[in-house]
Write a structure and sequence with these properties.
This protein has a single domain, classed as Orthogonal Bundle (Arc Repressor Mutant, subunit A), CATH 1.10.10.10. It has helices at 2-17, 22-26, 31-45, 52-58, 64-76, 98-113; strands spanning 80-84, 92-96. The protein is globular. The model has no long low-confidence stretch (mean pLDDT 86). Helices cover 62% and strands 9% of the residues.
């Protein structure tokens, strides 16, 4: 049991050492940041399109201007990307970048490999 706790503790400490870099820090800034990441990744995993407007609507307890700022910052940092739809150029879909998908999957795999 002590070894398993140490593994989880080691993982947490490693995450905290990286907290100032990459998505690790960005998506832990607030519950809204984390919720946005989960919504985008969920849509990606389910192969569903997610428009920026849908994302703003789904974020709980976050104003639309604040949602727009978080989206803009996530895109500027390279975590998400925006794509115009072919049918309506005003609508933009949001999706994770390839590098963020890799980072997210690595994070999930690490968590899965920690035994309880």
């Amino acid at each position: 049991m002590a070894k398993e706790k140490k593994t989880l503790l080691d993982f947490w400490e490693e995450q905290m050492r990286q907290s100032h870099t990459a998505s690790n820090y960005f998506f832990r800034k607030s519950p809204s940041h984390y919720h946005m990441m989960l919504l985008v990744m969920s849509a990606h995993k389910e192969n569903k399109k997610l428009s920026v407007e849908e994302l703003k609507t789904k974020l709980f307890k976050t104003s639309r201007p604040k949602s727009a700022l978080i989206i803009t910052e996530a895109c500027e940092k390279g975590f998400f990307r925006l794509e115009k739809t072919s049918t309506d150029q005003r609508i933009k879909n949001i999706s994770p970048s390839e590098s963020f998908i890799e980072e997210f999957n690595e994070y999930l795999n690490t968590l899965k490999n920690i035994s309880y």
